[in-house]
Amino acid sequence: MPSGHTIDRSEAKELSVKDWILTMIILAIPIVNIIMLFVWGFGEGTNPNKRNYARAALIIAAIAIVLYLIFAIVFFVVLSASMSMS
User: Fold this and answer.
1) pTM of the entire structure?
2) Tens digits of per-residue pLDDT, 12-39?
3) pLDDT of residue 1
4) Would residue 10 count as lying in a domain?
5) How many domains does the chain have?
6) Distant-in-sequence, close-in-space partners of 13: CB < 8 Å, separation ≥ 6
7) Where exactly are the transmembrane stretches of this chain (predicted)?
C-alpha cells in the first residue's frame, strides 16, 4: 500500500484481540493517550475501526469536559451567591 494512502473500509483487516489489548494499554498511559487518540483519529493509514473508536473517544471526552465546566461554573455561582447572602 502506497504511503499516504488511506485504508478503504473494504480493504481494512479485522483488528485482533491482541491489537485491541495493545490499544487499551497505550490509552492507559497519561498524555500519550490523548496524543494517540488524535493520531489514530485523524492520521493517515489508520484502520477504520480504530479511527472511529478514537474519534468517538475524543467526542465523549469533549462532552465530559463541557459538562464538567458547566457544573463547576454553576457550583461556584451558587456558592458565591450563598456566601454573599450570609
Assistant:
1) 0.79
2) 889 999 999 999 999 999 999 999 999 9
3) 47
4) no
5) 1
6) 47
7) 20-42, 54-79
Residue 75 is assigned to a structural domain of this protein? yes
Alpha carbons 3 and 31: distance in angstroms, whole number: 27
Considering only CA atoms, give the Rg of the chain.
20
5 assigned to some structural domain: no
* Domain that includes residue 47, residue range: 17-85
CB neighbours of residue 25 within 10 Å: 9
Kindly state the greatest CA–CA separation across the chain: 70
What single letter denotes the amino acid at residue 7? I
Residues in the chain, overall count: 86
Cα-based torsion angle of the residue sequence 12, 18, 19, 22 in order, rounded to the nearest 10 degrees: 180
